[in-house]
Specification:
By secondary structure, the protein is of the alpha/beta class. The protein contains two helices and eight strands; from the N terminus they run βαββββαβββ.
Length: 121
């Protein structure tokens, strides 16, 4: 098993608001889909890269106390500024990781989820 992560979902209350937040954060367009009656917006990715989606579904509630997904950004400071402009906030300021891994920070997104951002070294 080379990469155990093959898909992730970030729960949302308001899919349109969440799409606007993440499209601003990453300067990217999301693809809307409804699969098995579940509304989602898929993060841009090229296979075999890991995919994921913003998901509005009964039984999934946004929150800041559960699993943390780290999303790649080439410019952490710019991403933190965009997150704030889009209605989010920084909940953990940038921290350099050892062994030349890069720098991370955490935000609270437009839906109340805690999400990690990672800028590789």
């Amino acid at each position: 098993m080379n990469n155990p992560i093959n898909w992730f979902e970030i729960p949302v209350e308001d899919l349109n608001r969440a799409i606007a937040f993440y499209e601003k954060l990453f300067d990217a367009a999301f693809r809307r889909e409804t699969i098995a009656g579940i509304d989602m917006a898929v993060f841009p990715h090229v296979k075999p890269a890991t995919g994921g989606a913003l998901v509005k579904m009964a039984g999934l509630t946004p929150g800041d106390q559960g699993t943390v997904v780290y999303l790649h950004t080439p410019d952490l400071q710019a991403a933190l500024e965009k997150a704030q402009e889009a209605g989010g906030r920084c909940c953990m300021p940038p921290q350099a990781l050892p062994h030349n891994i890069g720098t991370i920070a955490m935000i609270i997104d437009s839906e109340g989820n805690r999400v990690g951002l990672h800028q590789p070294a």
